Each structure stands twice: as C-alpha cells, then as structure tokens.
Amino acid sequence: MRVKPTKTKSGCRSVGLPPATVEVLRAHKVATMERRLVLGQGKMNEDDVPVFSTLEATFYVPNSITRTWARALESRGLPHVSFHALRHSHVSALIRGGVDILSISRRIGHAKPSLTLDRYGHLLPCSDAACVAAIGRVLSSR
After folding, report:
1. What is the pTM of this model?
2. 117, 88 Cβ separation under 8 angstroms
3. 88: nearest Cα among 110, 111, 114, 61
4. pLDDT (0 to 100) of residue 108
5. Do 1 and 59 contact (CB within 8 A), yes or no?
6. CA end-to-end distance (rounded Å), the chain
7. Residue 50 has what pLDDT?
C-alpha cells in the first residue's frame, strides 16, 4: 500500500464531519494506539498512525476492508452492497437533505458539477409547478 496523489486537483480536499463522528473516530484511534501499547508494539506519534490501521500502523489492504464489510453486512442479515456504495448513499442523503449540487460535487471531489449531475441528477426533485411559480414571481416583479 502506498499513498499517491489524487487523480485531479479537486480530489485533494478537506471533508467536514459532524462533531459526533469526529468523536467516535478519535476514540477509535486512541483505542488502536492503546492496543499497540498493550501488545508491546510501542508508542507512536499520533500523526503517524492512520485512523484505520493495522497494529503496525500501516494501512489496511483494500481487500481486507471489503471482506470485513461483507462479513458485517452478512452478520446483520443485510443485503450485500459494495463498500463503495456508501459514497453513493452519502450523495443521495445530501440531495434528499436539499444540499445544492455544486456543494455536493466539491465535497465528493468531482472535477465538474456536470459529472455529479450526470450521475445523480435522477435523484433531484423535479417539479414543473415549482418552475411555473418561480417564473410567475419573476414576471410579476417587472
């Protein structure tokens, strides 16, 4: 495993998280570092350890994440969906929450909002009545 540059400039970004999520991730990282100490792996600088890492503080192999995800779904009797599908679920939830396409596009690292629209446009609410009302407001304000 190695860290490499993103495919596009827009791929290099910061993604905000709700405070409760940050709290859970920090607790997980602390627990991982404590487990390293208990197992005699030694103390490491917190910045050198990925949030999700092996006890040797290296990245997990992608296939192991895929297998763990599949086992978690199976153990809970949930239908099989790929781990990557979480990205699509995230975008769907943002659209349902009324977030604009430009913000979503930037959050998920698409180089152009048109890519986001091409992939997720079918999820956007479409109402001709809203169009009629909007153009009516514009025309009546003249």
Report:
1. 0.75
2. no
3. 110
4. 93
5. yes
6. 62
7. 78
What's the average pLDDT block by block, 10 residues per block, for the chain (142 residues)? Answer: 81 91 91 84 73 80 90 96 93 94 94 94 87 93 76
Distance CA 73, CA 95 (A): 25
Q: Report helix, strand or coil for 44.
A: coil
The pLDDT value recorded for residue 96 is 93
Calculate the dihedral angle through the C-alpha atoms of 66, 72, 77, 79, rounding to the nearest 10 degrees. Answer: -30
Closest CA to 101 of 124, 68, 126, 70: 124
d(CA 118, CA 91): 13
Residues 6+ apart with CB under 8 A from 70: 80
> Which bin fits 8, alpha (ψ -120 to 50), beta or left (φ > 0)?
beta
- Sign of CA pseudo-dihedral 125, 131, 133, 137: positive
